[in-house]
């Protein structure tokens, strides 16, 4: 199982790869993302085997070793194998959604978000070359100036806000847990859609739900303060909302930059958004288990803002659920890919229980 690297081991309470288990937590890189899930599945399967559970559906366990670097050699190949074998699954379960407390605006109960798809991913590289020369005679603009203007134009022209069917479904499912006036507003989603989209766009965490996001991430150019730069380049990362595409991102960038001499191309790996449009019966099964494990929660749908291995299996399953019933607050969410990643023993136990219940329910004829 792969995990993301650790930037600042000194900042951790316990060394990130020491596997420290104290009275309350299991500490380390991967404790949440995603070793806990693998081990919880294996624990649940071993338990079930020991107790003689015989599922009447085939259960495939597919653990990739390269998820954090896009999964082509792991999930990509496993999915290809399943596809060529003609396997078609009822239910695909993977990482993505969790149960959050104090994160969803205006909802006091914990919220379980079962993700039913994921956003797409694309990085655009902007590059410009100019004749160099002495900075005492710069001409009208330099490569750095042109590039800076292009990046600013992309940032100043975000993708439009759009309330997708999944976002509407998400809001509808949490509506009963909200207080007024939000509840009434959400009841009018058909007429108040644009208002709801604007409310969601007010915070980065929810803005990702209503638009293809734009993030200039890297910029470089020039070699010395008094030398005209001959080359400058920048990278802008986009997370693509269902309904937009990788090609739309590239077209958008070229259109808003309006600089014919600038090279604007896709860079590295891209993926289209993928989404399971229908929350089918097996969604309800997963939702019911979540409610059983943590009574009183709100259960809703969502879209994974990043990319997961599931997109390789998307066409192989009737229902897709990216979910684990671990309970995280805003600070815990930052530990994922961050410092002091850890999972509570209670959460880990609940995760094992979740997988066991899922196996038991699938075992019923
Ligand atoms: Zn990750």
List keywords for this structure.
365 residues; Aminopeptidase; four-stranded antiparallel sheet; 11 strands; metal-binding; hydrolase; Pept_M20A
Provide a descriptive summary of the structure in words:
This protein has helices at residues 35-50, 75-84, 143-156, 165-174, 182-187, 189-201, 204-210, 246-257, 281-293, 310-313, 330-335, 345-363, and strands at 25-27, 89-100, 111-118, 120-129, 213-221, 231-240, 263-266, 274-275, 298-304, 317-328, 342-344. It is α+β, with helices and mostly antiparallel strands and 365 residues long. The chain has a domain at 9-119 and 273-363: Zn peptidases (Aminopeptidase, 3-Layer(aba) Sandwich), CATH 3.40.630.10. Strands 2, 3, 8, 9 and 10 form a five-stranded mixed sheet that branches. The protein is globular and about 80 Å long. The relative contact order is 0.24. The mean pLDDT is 91. Residues 4, 33, 68, 337 line the site of zinc ion.
In short:
It holds the Pfam family Peptidase_M20. The chain has 365 residues and is α+β, with helices and mostly antiparallel strands. It has twelve helices and eleven strands.
């Amino acid at each position: 199982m792969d995990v993301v690297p650790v930037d600042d081991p000194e900042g951790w309470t316990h060394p990130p790869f020491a596997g420290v288990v104290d009275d309350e937590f299991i500490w380390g890189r991967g404790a949440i993302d995603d070793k806990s899930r693998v081990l919880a599945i294996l624990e649940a399967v071993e338990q079930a085997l020991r107790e003689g559970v015989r599922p009447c559906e085939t259960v495939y366990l597919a653990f990739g070793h390269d998820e954090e670097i896009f999964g082509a050699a792991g999930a990509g190949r496993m999915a290809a194998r399943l596809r060529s074998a003609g396997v078609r699954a009822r239910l695909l379960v993977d990482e993505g959604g969790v149960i959050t407390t104090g994160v969803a605006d205006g909802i006091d109960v914990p919220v379980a978000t079962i993700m039913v798809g994921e956003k797409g991913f694309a990085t655009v590289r902007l590059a410009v070359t100019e004749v160099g020369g002495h900075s005492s005679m710069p001409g009208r603009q330099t490569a750095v100036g042109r590039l800076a203007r292009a990046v600013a134009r992309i940032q100043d022209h975000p993708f439009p806000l759009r309330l997708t069917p999944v976002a509407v479904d998400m809001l509808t499912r949490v509506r009963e847990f909200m207080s007024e006036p939000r509840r009434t507003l959400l009841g009018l989603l058909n007429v108040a859609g644009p208002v709801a989209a604007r409310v969601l766009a007010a915070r980065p965490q929810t803005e990702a739900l209503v638009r293809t996001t734009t993030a200039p991430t890297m910029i470089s150019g020039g070699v010395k303060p008094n030398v005209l730069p001959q080359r400058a380049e920048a990278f802008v990362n986009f997370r693509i909302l269902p309904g937009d595409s990788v090609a739309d991102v590239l077209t958008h960038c070229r259109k808003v930059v309006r600089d014919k001499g600038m090279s604007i191309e896709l860079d590295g790996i891209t993926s289209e958004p993928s989404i399971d449009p229908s929350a089918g019966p097996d969604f309800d099964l997963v939702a019911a288990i979540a409610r059983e494990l943590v009574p009183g929660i709100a259960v809703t749908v969502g879209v994974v803002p990043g990319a997961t291995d599931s997109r390789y299996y998307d066409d192989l399953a009737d229902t897709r659920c990216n979910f684990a019933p671990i309970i995280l607050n805003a600070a815990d969410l930052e530990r994922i890919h961050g410092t002091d990643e850890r999972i509570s023993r209670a959460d880990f136990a609940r995760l094992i229980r979740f997988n066991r219940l899922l196996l038991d329910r699938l075992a019923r004829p």
